[in-house]
Every structure is written in C-alpha cells, then in structure tokens.
Amino acid sequence: MTLSVTSAFDGGNIRVVAIEGDRIDLEIAKDHQSDFYQWFYFRLTGAAGQAVEIRILNCGGSAYPHGWDGYRACVSADREEWERADTDYAGGILTVRATPATNSTWFAYFAPYTMERHHDLVAEVAGHPDVEYRSLGRTLDGQEVDYFRIGGGPLSVWLYARQHPGETMAEWWMEGALEKLLDDSDPVSRRLLEKATFHIVPNMNPDGSRRGHLRTNAAGVNLNREWHSPSAERSPEVLHVLGEMERTGVDFAMDVHGDEAISANFLAGFEGIPSWKKEQQDVFDAFSKALVRISPDFQTEKGYEIPRPGHANLSMSTAQLAERFGAVSMTLEMPFKDNDDLPDPVAGWSPQRSRLLARSCLDALHAIADGLAERRR
Ligand code: ZN
C-alpha cells in the first residue's frame, strides 16, 4: 500500500502538501470565512509497521502558536483509545513521529467528538424518562441546536459547551455531567435535581463541529463574541440559546471550553461587569474553592488575567449572563495538553479526565447550592 492521508469525514481537517517516502507534509485548513485554524483530524492509511514523520507546516500562523510548545498530538487505531504521539515544535512546524500498528490510523489535535457521536449522545439522553428534549432552533447549515431540561428545582442552572467547536474536551465533559445527573443512585444528583432545573446545550456549534473548525460557525463567526447582540444571519445558535435563557432566567451558568496554551484547568469569571456585586462574586469564589478541594485536577493559580472593574467583554457569554441576569456565571477551561500538576504521560488530558472533572463540578455546585438559593431570595 502507498501512504495516503484523508480528512473528508465528520469533523476532519487537513490538507496534503506532499508525501515523499516516509515523510508526510500537511497543512491545517482555515475555518470557513475566517483566519482561525488549529484543529486537525485526519486518517493515515497504508503505514502499518512503518516509521513515519508527519509535519504540519503552517502551525506558526495558527490561532495560538504558543499552544504547540509542549504539545503532543493524539493518535488512535480504534478511535476509542487515544494516546499521545512523539511530537515536537520548532520553526513554526509541528513534527509528529509514529509507527502505526495498523494500516488505518487517526491523528487529531484532541480526541474528536464527532457529530455522529453527538447524535448518539442525544439519542441516549433524550430517551431517558426524566429528560425533556427540545431543539431550540436551527443553525446556518440546517442542524438542530439540541437542548435538554432535567430536574424541577427553583434554581435555573445552565450548562453549555463547544461554542468553539475544536474544543472537543468540552463535549466529553458534557458526557460526564449527563451521566452523573441521570444516575438515579447518585445522592448529589438527586439533591441537585430537587434544588435546580438544569438546562443543557451539549454542543453550541454543530456546524463548526462537522466542518472541522477550530473556533467559528458556518459563517466564520466566533459565537463567544456575539452575546451582546446575536443575529439570525451571523449567530442563530446564540440567538436561540439566549432566547430560552430569557424565558428561564439564569442563576448559575457554566460555559465549557478548552485552552490551547495553559497546561491546567481553570475558571474565568465576570469580574469586570458594570453591575458587579460582591455577593455575586462571593458565590463564584465559593464554587471555585469547593472545586479545588474536590478535584486535584483543578487549581486557581494559573489562568487568564482578571479584567479591571468595568472592563468586562460583554460580547462573551459569561460576562453577558452575569450582567443581564445577575447570574453566577463562569467559563471553564480545560487543557489541550495536560494538567502539569498531575500529568498523564500516556494520554495527557483526555476524554475520561474531562468526564471526571464534570462530575467534580457538579459536586462543587452541590456544595454551594444553598448559597445560590440564598441569593435568589
Ligand atoms: Zn474556547
């Protein structure tokens, strides 16, 4: 067999520049109508037992060039177990060395979460007797924006993920959250579902997910810069979700993401909003402290710079929801690389660790639920 590289499938992204002997030169394609790129996902065939050198030539011009330092590519033979490959980054070129065991091997920026898997998740969760499924509306490519409502308590809790479609760890996180919330024997979930109603959008950006985008939807729009004024032309996904939020109100919200550069899990809050209140901040801080105690994979030392008072970016969902609804809202960032405080040399940060962090987040939410309810009164 000769070596061949393809990405013409759900979530795929790569362009072949040249294949010569054991060396494969590739480029990542930009998001449609956008300059962002960093997500890759491709299949290599015909390389069983052969030591290959895969070079991605245009990494220096990607959205987050610092994301490549210390990064290792994900590789899988069965698309279930993903391990990290020998990878280095120099002169703007990412070089991955591997000797595939089989004639069909997949490589990705992070373990992919395809739209096909998303449909499997929706089918499973929507069939549960305690879940109300609805589509909140359609995307520009004509896909549904899937929504689940679970529980019946007075607190309105919103969990939503993958505004940035290349941050697939965010939907792996959602799997973990949904598994825990729908576990009838879990005491934390049983109590949470009495205290709160959960509104869950497991994938805010189906179009970008299927197109193999890093950061934008079918129109090349970054959805997390649209929350101040979403439109049907540019950002129907945000328009649909914000419309439902207007109906339910929002007490607590978590927007789930991945960060290319920082090797840690961290939260970003709403410190710079015009209507910032200390008691709103206190509940955020209590959540953060609870999560530190519960999960060794979470920390508060590393993260983004905190905006000065009045300097929040209200086009981002976390700030917009805190301002508009007085919500305790936050952005959760997980690493593409690993948690350097507790590294896994084989898998790095992974689907399973994302799922487990979601469980810890729900435990932390339970720990502060009375504080949230207090604010509501
Ligand atoms: Zn993001």
Q: How does this structure look, described?
A:
The protein is of the alpha+beta class and 377 residues long. The chain has two domains: 105 residues, Immunoglobulin-like; 262 residues, 3-Layer(aba) Sandwich (Aminopeptidase), CATH 3.40.630. 28% of the residues lie in helices and 24% in strands. It has eight helices and 17 strands. The strands form three sheets. The chain has a seven-stranded mixed β-sheet, sandwiched between helices. Helix 3 packs across helix 8 and helix 6 packs antiparallel against helix 8. It is globular and about 70 Å long. The mean pLDDT is 97. The site of zinc ion has 3 residues, from loops.
Give the helices and strands, then pairings:
Layout: E1 4-6, E2 15-20, E3 23-27, E4 41-45, E5 52-56, E6 74-76, E7 83-84, E8 86-90, E9 93-98, E10 104-108, H1 115-126, E11 131-138, E12 144-150, E13 155-161, H2 169-181, H3 187-195, E14 196-201, H4 206-211, H5 236-248, E15 252-259, E16 266-268, H6 278-294, H7 317-325, E17 328-335, H8 351-376
Helix pairs in contact: 2-8, 3-8, 6-8
Residues 164, 167, 257 line the site of zinc ion.
